[in-house]
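The protein record quoted for completeness.
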Amino acid sequence: MQRFHYLGDVNLIGESLRYAAFLGGELVALLGWSSASLHNGPRDSYLGWEAVPKRANLHQVANNVRFLILPWISMPHLASRVLGANLRRLSRDWQVTYGHPIVLAETFVDSSRFRGTCYRASNWRCVGETQGFSRSGHVYRFHGQPKAVWLYPLTRDFNQRLRTIPAPTTMEQRMTLDVEKLPLEGKGGLFPVLNTITDSRKKRGIRHKMQSVLAVAVCATLAGAKSFIAIAEWAAEQSRETLFKLGSMRGKPPSERTIRRILRSVDAAELDRRTGAWVAQQVQLQGSALSVDGKTLRGSGDGDRGAVHLLSAIVHGSGTVVAQIAVGEKTNEIPCIKPLLADLDIKGAVVTADAMHTQRETARYIVEDKKAEYVFTIKDNQPTLRQDVETLRLEAFPPSTHNAG
């Protein structure tokens, strides 16, 4: 992409996916999708979008920011064929990766270079041209090259879904976290934990203390934020008094770019280890249910190493991640469950996990060492145990307690 696309490669903004298209085992095309453009006049006019529904539903629009057919590939209708195949799976992939579907795709085509033939052949709609401005950070600059705006609906009711203001969900209600009730200073507070994390930045030009940005990120995560953008939006909605309480020097929220830069600069393992126990205390793990779940991070691999695989401890219902650990390339999730739960007080909690963790030593560790309970799935990886369950017909009566006869 960097070598052959006229715009080069790009850091994809917000929620994003990259695709590689193969034909007969040969790489023929590359595509990049990112979060939708915030300001897109022709699109907003076409949808009849007002500010409130746009803010609520913009995440359901994806922007095709890059599309490259490799220059040595020559095949009639290949571009529209690749684009069509990508569109058929885009919403499903977005649902799996980010937990919500995509109902509308958008793209910008430089009319001085291209006619948008492949988009027209794939039934996209040209809804107008931009005014010739581009965004650089928080500033829009006039470049004098308007671009055609093309849209592709992925559902028949896309307009209705994008113009409907959704009812508040449990997650949105949790975004109203009361910071005043959280222990921030003194023994058991958040700042004593964050002050142990090293700031590698140079002192000149610093506008936000690292501990303040980390405090914002932790509190936003407790409130339900799951991305850099969501953390920045949560911060922007807080009062000056709340931001001062979270360590802000000027009572102003950090930008998404600042949050992203600082969180990427710190040692993720150290941050998880030091803040996980504090977060766990706030969500009261004792007596709750905790899910142990592994997930491979999309796009985290490169040519020299595989994708990053994380094992996480997640609170049922709220979805709060209270601990996570990277699974090494030369091991698997099974031996990682002990260090994952080591610093968590889960006495009386119920730990759930998939069939991989249905292991005798894991069960012993949870019950005897952590004083918790477990619910494991039995599949073919434990054939003897599964046969015992089927023979005893354990589904015919409820589980017994330790003291049951």
Summary: The first strand starts at residue 17 and ends at 23. The domain at 17-163 is CATH 3.40.630.30 (Aminopeptidase). Residues 294 and 311 are 4 Å apart (CA to CA).
